[in-house]
Design a protein that fits this description.
By secondary structure, the protein is an all-alpha fold. It has one domain. Helices cover 78% and strands 0% of the residues. The protein is built from 7 helices and no strands. The two termini are 32 Å apart.
């Protein structure tokens, strides 16, 4: 646990930016989708291993795509997060219009409390090299981190994100479907 806290402290700027980018995009999408129920229907899901795998693999895929921006110094992470976050928010806004607040609180909130921050942490993982480069360009007084250390921190943030996604998929499958 101390290692995770240390990781979050070391990369607090990337984590803050990842959360702002992801949740800001979600908010924009939710506002755009608010009250629009077109093209959306509510279908009950059956709890089971196939649902769990479907939920976990979809969300892990999103996390890996956000993390993949690491290879482009975070540029792809920013673009992906803007599009994916806005579309996710749009879906949530539409779902709220169809299902209503009480159903959304029961069916979405239990797993969303872990799932959405997990994606934000994956976004942060993809932003680590961008934050380090910007710090270097603006002349931060901090010592220059080694590329190896940045990669370790990025992978560590992704590991925390995937762990939260694992837990969120479990909750979504066996709690949110009740």
């Amino acid at each position: 646990m101390n290692e995770v806290v240390g990781l979050l402290r070391r990369q607090r700027m990337a984590v803050l930016l990842g959360f702002l980018l992801w949740f800001g995009s979600l908010a924009v999408g939710a506002v755009l989708g608010h009250g629009r129920a077109d093209g959306l229907e509510v279908r009950p899901a059956q709890a089971g291993a196939s649902l769990w795998w479907s939920v976990f693999s979809a969300n892990a895929g999103v996390a890996l795509l956000a993390f993949g921006g690491l290879l482009t110094m975070g540029v792809v992470t920013v673009l992906f997060s803007l599009v994916s976050g806005t579309l996710t928010g749009l879906g949530l806004g539409k779902a709220l219009a169809v299902a209503g607040p009480a159903t959304m609180a029961l069916r979405v909130l239990p797993h969303a409390l872990l799932e959405l921050p997990a994606i934000a942490l994956a976004v942060a993982a993809g932003l680590v090299p961008l934050v380090a480069a910007v710090r270097r360009l603006v002349g931060s007084s901090r010592p220059r981190p080694l590329v190896r250390d940045l990669l370790v921190d990025s992978v560590g943030l992704l590991g925390v994100a995937l762990t939260l996604i694992f837990l969120a998929a479990t909750i979504e499958t066996w709690v949110s479907t009740l």
